Amino acid sequence: MKRTILISLVIFFTAFSQFSYGFSWQVASPNEKYLVIAGTNKDGLFQYQVFYNGKNIILPSTLGFLLQNGTIAGRHVNMLAHTFNQSDTTWKPVYGEKNKYSDHYQELNISLQDRSGYILEIIFRAYNEGIAFRYNITGNPFGKTFSIHKELTGFSLPGKARAWVTYSAQGIYHLIPVDSIQRPAERPLVIRENNGLYVALGEAELVNYARMRFLPSTDKKNTLISSLDGDVTLPVPGYTPWRFIMAGEKAGELVEHNYLLLNLNKPCALKNVSWIKPGKVIREITLTTRGGKACIDFATKHNLQFIEYDAGWYGPESAKTSDATTVTPDLQRSKGPLDLQEVIRYGKEKGIGVILYVNHIALEQQLDTLLPLYESWGIQGVKYGFVRVGPQLWTGWLHEAIRKAATYHLMVDIHDEFRPAGYTRTYPNFMTCEGIRGDEESPSNTHTLITMFTRMIAGPADNTICYYNRRVDEKMGSHASQLAKAVCIYSPWEFLYWYDRPEGSPGSKQLKEKGGYGLIGNEPELTFFDQVPTVWDDTKVLEGEIGKYGTIARRHGEEWFIGSINGSQPHTVKIPLGFLKKDIKYTATIFSDDPGVSTRTHVKIETKTVDRHTILSYAVKPDNGLAMIIKPKTSK
Known about the structure:
With about 625 residues, the protein is of the alpha+beta class.
């Protein structure tokens, strides 16, 4: 303890010399791994810096705003007040990657007034999982609103660093030097600093504000600045979203601590959540009554909870004339017939819910009509398609649309470019979203392994898992890898068999005659998809190198499910089972790729008796994977 205090003091006095204008404060995380120091520099700019385990991960960096009237808010400031607060609680989510979360932090609030008369409160929170800060505009001498043109929030890195960068939420990631970023980069942004640490930058509680992304500074090397998607107007007082900084010796630590984003959002706003149901989904791709019933029969047999009618059920999705209050299949996609009410009735009889896709054009025109109508039909959820993202206008519209859906007991899945920022805590009817280069884009295992340790920091991702589509064999690794994705890519609504149809669906006979691609079979490894849950009591990242390999274990009740994905090089996966309970024997069912297996998917299944002393070891070939179910032998 004395050594920790001494290190903190050395850090503080070293940093204090860089804040020579007049004042400086610090706040540390409860475990003292994180330390944030804030103060003014010689030019009168308010700055902050962050340390992790004694290493300076963010050098002194600017804070403040450039306003629409050309004024810089946050320069030449006087300190009005500062306070310290703390919180140490736990809370239980409606569903999640764990069944409870710790919300433990130290907080520093600093109130400043600049020469223009603006009063800013800057709130810093130091969690064991990371640092977060936000602005609260509490005083504006010129009016009741505050109009922001740019944030001056900066992130100055200690020397050259590289980041896994994509310029769109569904884009391709590339590992490049931070100073080589060409246009606003998506968040979370994961950086490998020259000190060996992994650092993640991002935002949380983005509800009514412009999306923030990252650009290199034009006048300072190794420095990123916030880039907003347009101007922002806030009421006074008015809060910005949180900006967060996470760090870890291993990339997996960032994923294990991603509940930081949930902690930075408000508690659940819904009094009754009994109607919110996670589960597995199969997409109905023929837009017919027969196809819907075939999917429901398959879902009943294979422990899925929902079917989904995707684009085209109410007409061409991109046509302004398409009316989402009618059931009018797009003739370019299906000749029907589609009796949706009969499908809904049949689903209720079998205990299977129905989800409908609606494009943003219809949503923007008809939202207040559609939501109560769909509730009256018995629909359980809506997939919001091609929503507009970025500017404050559309951020606000989308989150209002989530809240309105809750009023009518409708769950929501958001496609396409939207990425989450923890709002599922406040409105858990917001089940999942895309914002990922999922299986519709045929990502390689290497790219999926980048996604696992970057995009997945943000929260749930609808990856639209494929299984019998030809692209799995040609581009996407292996079938065992596809099984593993159901564990590795978290989503409370897990879409399986995205391009596939079951026996009895229109066209299934023709698919069978053509070799079976796209037709769901009866391969024995489907038992993994049958049994895998979509929400969890505990999550552990067992190993991982971004883009190279990754293994994640998740617990549901007394059972553990493990997914392991391998990249382009051979890798020996070693899985110590020390997380199992003492003095209990378990049965491990292991699913692996084996070209010697005679099925069309070539997945080998074996069982082993294991306990907490067992270390499972498998030599996994390039672009292959593993999936496991581990159950106590006493389980039925």
